[in-house]
Amino acid sequence: MYQQLKGKNFEIVSVAQDTGGVKDAGPWIDPLKYSEAGKEMPKEVLEMARKTGPLTYTVLVDEKHLVSKLYNMVNVPTGVWINEKGRIVRPNEVAFADDRFKGFTGLDSAPYLNAIRDWAEKGDKSIYAMSEDRLREKLAAQNPDFALASAEFGLGEQLYKSGHLAEAIPHFKEAQRLNPRSWNYKRQAYKLSGEGDYGTTFAQEVQKAGGSKVYYPPPELPKAGETQEKKP
């Protein structure tokens, strides 16, 4: 899709949220390179990489999870649309670029990708560009506990990086308690120390929350023929 749209004032900036930095995120950014070097990668990831070829858009690695904190991202993959004026057009939402996980999520990537194409063509006139009223609703003030959760998680990260994993775990747990909606907190914490330290598994937490439809709620896309009220 990027090859189709990059000539229309369209850019993709992909940000890997991983405390382990390039060491952990690198294999998912360039799976073929790491596979050739002996890293075991999921078959479907390698097949997709062979199909699409090397990434040509910007990819960053965010070890401090700053993007997640600033945009209140709670899962991956998450997309945010930002126009050429630096204004958010669509806030964070589930954003699949292909169907490799459709069997689990039940989500078809085509409607979202078609919405992006429409926006690239029509800009703010696209029906997928949210109205100001809807944006205000979606970007309403956060629960103050979420800010505390971010601080707790950051403290846990710092302790982990300084070699104090045992001391970091209580802070990771508190971050999850304060913001139970954040799957990023769970995923990262479990990866750094193991699920055994939390008395549960990631799969169990997904089922406890209500399954894949809660874990990956579909993006709010208007149907063909619908319009959103736009203010001049």
Helix-strand layout with pairing:
Elements: H1 2-5, E1 13-17, H2 22-29, H3 31-36, H4 43-52, E2 58-62, H5 66-71, E3 78-82, E4 88-94, H6 102-105, H7 110-122, H8 132-138, H9 144-161, H10 165-178, H11 183-193, H12 202-209, H13 212-215
Parallel strand pairs: 1-2
Antiparallel strand pairs: 3-4
Question: Could you characterize the architecture of this molecule?
Answer:
This protein is mainly alpha-helical. The chain has two domains: 2-138, Glutaredoxin; 144-215, Alpha Horseshoe (Serine Threonine Protein Phosphatase 5, Tetratricopeptide repeat), CATH 1.25.40. The protein contains 13 helices and four strands. It has helices spanning 2-5, 22-29, 31-36, 43-52, 66-71, 102-105, 110-122, 132-138, 144-161, 165-178, 183-193, 202-209, 212-215; strands at residues 13-17, 58-62, 78-82, 88-94. The longest helix is centred in the middle third of the chain and has 18 residues, at 144-161. The chain is globular, with a radius of gyration of 19 Å. The mean pLDDT is 92.
